[in-house]
Design goal:
Layout (H helix, E strand, L loop, with lengths): L1 E6 L11 H8 L4 E6 L12 E2 L9 E2 L1 H17 L5 E12 L2 H8 L3 E4 L9 H8 L4 E5 L9 H12 L36 E2 L2 E2 L9 H19 L1 H6 L7 H9 L2 E3 L5 E3 L7
Parallel strand pairs: 1-2, 1-6, 5-6, 5-7
Antiparallel strand pairs: 3-4, 8-9, 10-11
6-chloroguanine binds next to strand 5 and strand 7.
């Protein structure tokens, strides 16, 4: 997979040399190109922004540097044999970046990222490239960052770990909390390793029982417990058929009950802090 990132802070992308993404790069599974947007400015001050038409606070990133920078990155990629680019524009106004979208992007051969600073990029840039390639405007959560570079790191890590051979074990992401097609999308429960005692704290007996059925059930119950506490929306979203008899017993203990419409809901007084 080829990745291009156009940014006014190339050093912000240095973490792409570290850990899983860095190793994927070193192995040649990821071909990363970071471009400095200011190389496509032609004035003495390397201006990349200007005041918004219509007035209002903040600055807007200018068309010409973005257009020339993206054209250059695309031309370089095509020359080296890449094809099928998609443009990824991180923005708090984008659609939520989910595991499903990470899987979709991991199936593309070439991602071009356009992270903005200030109030965003002149809309004509996005409209122009949307006539040439798929454009994904994505948000990584309901909060506002000062720029899209951190989101590029987030999306890249989520995508890179899905590439064949990057995690080593294809089974590794089958159980991801948000893996598409899981029985019910539950959060993962707690995990433990050696030593068996630490500061007077033990590990749950069931995990050393050797009883695989009981261990699987315990893990599922803990997943239900955590999901009910931290992400009740994930349980409400599930079709009731996603839960087996033992799940329903656990959900009932946690204060949830099925409704005739085929969903679970929780009595308001059962919410524990
Ligand atoms: Cl992708 N960019 C910015 N600037 N803020 C965000 C975001 C992206 N996602 C959530 N907040």
């Amino acid at each position: 997979m080829r990745l291009d990132v156009v940014t006014i802070f190339p050093e912000y992308l240095d973490p792409l040399n570290v850990s899983l993404v860095g190793k994927a790069r070193a192995r040649g599974q990821l071909n990363v190109h970071v471009h400095d947007l200011r190389e496509w400015t032609y004035d003495r001050h390397n201006t990349v922004d200007d005041t918004p038409y219509g007035g209002g606070p903040g600055m807007v990133m200018k068309t010409e540097p973005w257009g020339d920078a993206l054209d250059s990155a695309l031309a370089d990629g095509y020359e080296t044999g890449s094809h099928g680019p998609v443009l990824v524009v991180p923005t708090p106004s984008g659609r939520p970046f989910t595991q499903e979208l990470a899987v979709e992007l991991s199936e593309r051969p070439w991602l071009v990222f356009a992270p903005a600073r200030y109030e965003g990029i002149d809309r004509r840039v996005i409209d122009e490239y949307a006539t040439r390639m798929p454009v994904y405007e994505v948000s990584i959560g309901d909060y506002v960052l000062a720029g899209g570079e951190a989101a590029v790191l987030v999306v890249t890590e989520a995508v890179a770990r899905l590439l064949p051979g990057v995690l080593g074990n294809a089974e590794s992401h089958r159980d991801d909390s948000f893996a598409p097609g899981a029985m019910a999308n539950l959060l993962e429960g707690p995990v433990y390793t050696k030593p068996p005692q630490w500061r007077g704290r033990e590990i749950p007996d069931v995990l050393v029982s050797g009883h695989h059925g009981k261990i699987a059930r315990w893990r599922r119950d803990e997943a239900l417990r955590r999901t009910a506490a931290n992400r009740p929306d994930l349980i409400e979203r599930c079709d009731a058929s996603a839960f087996d008899k033992k799940d329903r017993e656990m959900l009932s203990i946690l204060g949830w009950q099925p409704d005739p419409g085929g969903r679970f809901w929780r009595r308001p007084e059962a919410v524990e802090e």
